[in-house]
Write a structure and sequence with these properties.
four-stranded antiparallel beta sheet, 11 strands, 51% strand
Length: 113
Amino acid sequence: QVQFLESGGGLVQYGGSLGLSCVALGFTFSDYALNWYRQAPGKERELVATITSAGDNTVYPASVHGRCTVSRDNVKNTAYRQMRNLKVEDTAVYYCEVAQRGRGQGTQVTVSS
């Protein structure tokens, strides 16, 4: 059974840092690229990072570029997202997704001003 288990969300002050984790189970994690998405209330889903299957390349949109680093450990079937210099507009539910495999339920990140 495919499962995605995100963790690490929470409340953080403006300018702070936060790390997220995503454990993927039930498929060969190392065969797939992984995407991080976020969705804020009333807004469309936004792709906020992509990491290749081997973890050797990452892509970030302008909205988070320079403030976010994603990585993965294919032995642990886990992806990571390190966020820094957080802004109020980063407040959203963050979730990991693998094409054709599914996504997790997400973890809430709230940035206070």
